[in-house]
Write a structure and sequence with these properties.
By secondary structure, the protein is mainly alpha-helical. It is about 40% helix and about 5% strand. It contains 7 helices and 2 strands. It has a two-stranded antiparallel ribbon with strand order 1-2.
Amino acid sequence: MARRRRRATINKAYMVLLLLLGSVLALVLYTMTRNAQNANQTLAMATFLPYNGVAQPTNPPAAKTPAPDPVVSTVTAAPAVVTSVWTPLPGFIVETPAPTSGGVLKRGAQGDEVRAIQRRLRELKYLSGSADGDFGEATESALIAFQKANGLTGDGVAGPATLKKLNSDSAKSKPSGSSSGSGSSSGNTSRATSMPKPRTYVASEATDYRYLQSGSSGSDVKRLQNRLIELGYLGGTASGSFDYETEEAVRDFQDRNGQWVDGIAGQDTQSMLFSSKALAARGSSYSGGND
């Protein structure tokens, strides 16, 4: 009898335990379900938020990146070539021919470039005529002699190599005993001139001209230079000093006007120079009309 009661008590205990386990299991399931529902609602709210009564995505669309501006390439021109120019020291006159036609000067050419060549040839004793600016037979012969004496091809053409040598300090003068080109350097025939009369110094007077030569100075020289400049034989401005350039200009004037070429401005030279018959230098724009 006692055993039955004990068994009945145990059975009741098992039943209560099972009921408790069932209740706990039901509670767990219920809790899990509620959590799942809450999670779904949170996800839905995170995806769409109301804006002006309309559900909008929480993540706005990515901003469009504007297309880059077209790149314009700028072409930069190459810099100009800078040529170094040698500048002579003050007080030194350097006259270098600068040919403009193909870099060469030859027979038939005219102008200041030719005149500069003639003056240099005369300095080196290859040319005895005047520097009239005309590249004639005499100038050609003098140039050939210079070229041969200085190891160049004797073709009578003043090209870059000849000009460089001609104006260098190493240019060789004409050997003594050789004849120099004479007469006008622009023509094929020489003009005979009378021997000059002995000159003596004459003081400046109203009716006479002062005897002017290298080393002279004063107002008479300045007046002489101004007239030579006017006729195109001398460049620059009158200094009042009878220098090398003035002497060369007087020589050119004398040769052009049929006078004895000695570079000295005596009575005859100045009489012609200041007369209306004076011929201007070749290529000069002077139109005449002097007393």
